[in-house]
Write a structure and sequence with these properties.
It is built from one helix and four strands; from the N terminus they run H-E-E-E-E. The chain is mostly beta strands. The chain has one domain (13-94). The chain has a four-stranded antiparallel β-sheet, with helices on one face. It is globular, with a radius of gyration of 13 Å.
């Protein structure tokens, strides 16, 4: 799987779909978010980890170049989780900074994530 960790990306379709349908996030609030991702393992299952973040005027000095660079700017992360590379499970949760979100969606969903 090819990915370029040096560039912010738009939210992947599977993450957008999960946020809107499972977490009931207003799609209009997702328009300005960016995504940083990296391959990893959850136990012995290969996954793609994602962090969805917001760059605004207040965070203009933050230079986000990779998934790991968000470790230095945790206040920017709104959602975090992963998708199994086989695509059967999605796990995303809102961070404490995500406004109006119920943090009870902590179990992976067992639906196909197209």
């Amino acid at each position: 799987m090819w990915y370029d960790p040096s560039k912010p990306k738009d939210i992947p379709q599977w993450a957008h779909l999960h946020l809107v349908t499972v977490l009931k996030v207003d799609p209009d609030t997702l328009a300005g978010l960016k995504c940083a991702e990296r391959p990893d393992y959850e136990g012995n299952i290969p996954v793609m980890r994602v962090r969805l973040y917001e760059l605004d005027a207040a965070s203009a000095g933050a230079r986000i170049t990779s998934y790991e660079s968000l470790d230095r700017h945790p206040r920017l992360i709104l959602y975090e989780g992963y998708r199994t590379l086989a695509g059967e499970q999605v796990f995303l949760e809102s961070t404490s900074r995500s406004p109006g979100q119920d943090a009870s969606h902590r179990k992976p969903s067992n639906r196909a994530a197209g």
